[in-house]
Structure formats: C-alpha cells, structure tokens
Amino acid sequence: MKKLLIGVLLVNLLAACASQKPKEAVVEAKPAPVAETPRAVEAVPVPAPAPMVAVDPLNDPNSILAKRSTYYPFDVYVVQDADKPIVQAHAQYMSEHANRKVRLEGNCDERGSTEYNLGLGQRRADGVKKMLQVGGVKDGQIETVSYGEEKPRLTCHEEKCWKENRRTDLNYR
Q1: In a 3-state reduction of DSSP, which class is residue 95?
Q2: How many H-runs (helices) and E-runs (strands) does the chain carry?
Q3: Regions in the chain scoring below 70 on pLDDT
C-alpha cells in the first residue's frame, strides 16, 4: 500500500508539472484616439474694449451739476428752495475737488436802476457763495461778481424774459 500511495503521488506530481498554466486574459491595446484636426475657422474681428474715460460730472447732461444757474423772484436775493439742491451738489463737488474754482455771477432783470441792480446782483452771488461755504468750499475757490442788468439771457421786455435774467450763474474756471 505504501507503494501504491507513492505511485499515485508521483503520477499526480508529474501531471501537475506537465499541465499548462491558465493563460491570462490578454487585453488588446487600442490605438489612442487621434485628435481631429481643427477646421479652418473664419476670423471674426473682435472690437477692442472702449477706453475707460472718466466723465466729468460738470459736463454730463444727466448730472445735477450740469445745472449752473439759480433763479429768483422779483427783488429777491435768497436762494429758493427749488435751487438749493443744485447749490448743495456744487458745494459737494467743489469740496471734493479743491483745485476747482468758480465765479458766481449775479444778474438782474432790466427793471430798477443800474446801481440798485448791481447791488442786488451782488447780494444774489453772495447768497450762493455763503451756501457753498457752508457746504465745505474754501473761500479761495470762489469769486463773486455782479453784472446787474448788463448781461441778460433774454432781451424781450416781459415776465418770461425777466424770469430768465434774475439769476446767479456758476462758471467754473
């Protein structure tokens, strides 16, 4: 029995050595995908971005600073409530731009004597000056002058023209 057992073992051993090992699965390598050659694309001109230009609010028609006149009723030199926001906006602008200067030109309609109108025009310019100073504008930035009735905006002799001529103009220099 021993011999039989050794014989079976030897046969199995020989059989094990003679058998082929199982083959590993072979994975075929696929060629790498070839990139498509780009088609010729028609060049489309791209506009250059517009240069950033700072818009001066004094020249922007949508800005309150584009309004440069305050108007008055007959024989009045106090800035009217309707015009106070204009003067306040100019005060803020000038206090932020200390290098800017303004000349305030007081004007009157043709009624009244030359001397009276010169004085009234000066009081109108001085009233706007005072509001600008309260808003932080330095005295050296402001000049006042009165033209009285000498520089009318309109020359007819009726109320619609007189209303336009009773004013203080803010002229930046």
Answers
A1: helix
A2: 4, 4
A3: 1-2, 4-5, 7-44
Q: Are 64 and 89 in contact (CB under 8 A)?
A: yes
Q: Which residues are 71's β-sheet partners? A: 167
Identify which of 82, 83, 52 has the alpha carbon closest to the alpha carbon of residue 70: 83
Positive/negative CA dihedral, 156, 158, 162, 163: negative
Identity of residue 147 = Y
Q: What strands, in cross-sheet order, belong to the sheet with 102-107?
A: 69-71, 167-172, 102-107, 142-148
Average pLDDT, the chain: 86
CA distance 38 to 61: 51
* Domains of the chain listed by start with CATH number: 68-172 (3.30.1330.60)
Q: How high is the pLDDT of residue 106?
A: 98
What's the one-letter identity of residue 168?
T
Helix (H, G, I), strand (E, B) or coil at 17: helix
Do the Cβ atoms of 92 and 114 come closer than 8 Å? no
What would the pLDDT profile of 21-48 be if each residue is shown by its tens digit? 555 555 566 666 666 666 666 666 777 7
The per-residue pLDDT for 40 is: 62
Q: Work out whether the CA dihedral 149, 154, 158, 159 comes out positive or negative.
A: negative
pLDDT tens sequence across 11-24: 665 556 565 555 55
